[in-house]
Write a structure and sequence with these properties.
This protein is of the alpha/beta class. The protein has 17 helices and 13 strands. The structure holds pyridoxal-5'-phosphate and zinc ion (ZN).
């Protein structure tokens, strides 16, 4: 492997490892590792050259550059051989205007980045293509890796199972029992992964999988593994590119384990360093009140941080009490004048339904982000003339049970404002007309 990028401790100890080494922590301080790119080498190309290169690749329909992630290969994982890439053409997801909804929530220039329009239905595909491709390359070079493993709130496991299956690599998945949606449970089962439903919450599964991965033949696929960040960081780059290389004022996203916000910041900072953009957007993290350790830390200026025991939330993909990427995310918040806001279960459920009424099909996590957008606009943290992008992290089709319960008026302790139930009548046109 060449030296275009390497792993380095996020706390600046200076210890380096090759990107294909099976190592997740700094041996000096225990901190997480990040992929660092040789920016001097990347600066050999002008900003305009990079923009032209990336814009040109958006026209391709086959080959690895048809993927929005691999279209940025030089910035993501330059050393991987093309023929070991495992891809489902992830990325290049739609960035859609949501004006009608935006006007109702005080943000006329609202956009939604539809990351759920992807092979396994969530943004986790962006990172998993990089991780599984790297494992594939490692196995081909004879590294003794027998399986990949992850703990998951449902979407990481769906992505890992699919990409691993496509590469012919066994996958082991640890899920918190009864805490992921039925759709998310069936995805890895269908893809043939070994699925273990633990009597624990996500944080409990995370502890067990880290112990499991002390066996070096089991490769850890959680977002403490920085290879996933490299793929996920393309989301911010893609948003800017889709606006014709213009930077929006705000990017808002639901946050749980804090890997995605860290990745978002990393991608935008790389663009900034390489001169493709001359300012940074502000970032807002959205949490469910029932699982809000990052919100609580923000409230005290990140001076102290306590993990919490996450309570049950409909936004199950962010039901996390001890986020692994806390340190990474705090750095991003400082750099991007970040804010964190939270919403209640009732707020997220009604926001989901309101967004759906305006044509979206929103997952509960995206409901949290939109609810936070509305709150920040009401507080004038976001001004009415600002351009705001909400990252929709998963496809609403993964959360049918929650939506069905909402429209049946069956969500406990929730005042549902937008219920729409079917009207059951006989097959007779007069009966139909009476209903209209
Ligand atoms: C994983 C996930 C998140 C949270 O991302 P983190 O990196 O854990 O902060 C949000 N929404 C959905 C749908 C997810 O699957
Ligand atoms: Zn260190």
């Amino acid at each position: 492997m060449n030296e275009n990028s390497w792993l380095e401790c996020i706390r600046g100890c200076g210890v380096r490892h090759a990107v294909d080494e099976v190592v997740y922590h700094c041996e000096q301080c225990g901190g997480l590792l990040d992929v660092v790119h040789d920016t001097e080498a990347l600066l050999q190309h002008s900003a305009q050259e990079w923009k032209d290169l990336f814009d040109g690749r958006t026209l391709l329909r086959t080959g690895i550059y048809a993927s929005g992630v691999w279209a940025k290969k030089e910035w993501v994982c330059p050393q991987i051989p093309d023929d070991t890439v495992v891809s489902f053409n992830e990325g290049n997801t739609p960035l859609v205007s949501a004006r009608l909804l935006g006007r109702q929530i005080g943000i006329p220039d609202l956009w939604v980045k539809q990351c759920g329009n992807s092979h396994t239905g969530s943004f986790k595909d962006l990172g998993m293509t990089v991780l599984v491709s790297m494992v594939n390359a490692m196995i081909r070079r004879g590294k003794p890796i027998k399986a990949v493993a992850c703990a998951s709130t449902g979407d990481t496991s769906a992505a890992l199972a699919a990409y691993a299956a496509a590469a012919g690599i066994p996958a082991i998945i640890l899920l918190p029992r009864n805490k992921v949606s039925p759709e998310q449970l069936i995805q890895p089962l269908a893809n043939g992964a070994k699925v273990l439903a633990l009597d624990a919450d996500f944080d409990g599964c995370m502890r067990v999988v880290q112990e499991l991965a002390q066996d070096p033949s089991i490769y850890l696929a959680n977002s403490m593994n920085s290879l996933r960040m490299e793929g996920q960081k393309t989301v911010g780059i893609e948003i800017v590119q889709q606006f014709g290389w213009q930077v929006p004022d705000w990017i808002i996203l639901p946050a749980g384990n804090l890997g995605n916000v860290s990745a978002l910041g990393k991608g935008l900072l790389l663009m900034f360093e390489l001169g493709l953009i001359d300012r940074l957007p502000r970032i807002a993290c959205a949490q469910a009140q029932n699982a809000n350790p990052f919100y609580l830390a923000f409230k005290n200026g990140f001076s102290s941080y306590q993990p919490v025991v996450a309570k049950t939330s409909m936004a199950s993909a962010i039901q996390i009490g001890a986020p692994v990427s806390y340190e990474r995310a705090v750095k991003v918040m400082h750099r991007f004048e970040g804010v964190v806001e939270q919403v209640s279960e009732e707020e997220l459920a009604n926001m989901c339904a309101l967004a759906d009424r305006n044509g979206l099909y929103c997952c509960p996590q995206t409901g949290v982000a939109l609810g936070v957008a509305q709150k920040l606009a009401a507080q004038h943290v976001i001004e009415a003339n600002e351009r705001v992008v909400v990252i929709s992290t998963a496809n609403g089709l993964k959360f049918s049970q929650m939506k069905t319960a909402y429209h049946a008026g069956g969500l406990k302790d929730i005042q549902a404002h937008y219920v729409n139930a079917p009207i059951e009548i006989e097959a007779d046109v007069r009966a139909v007309l009476r209903c209209l």
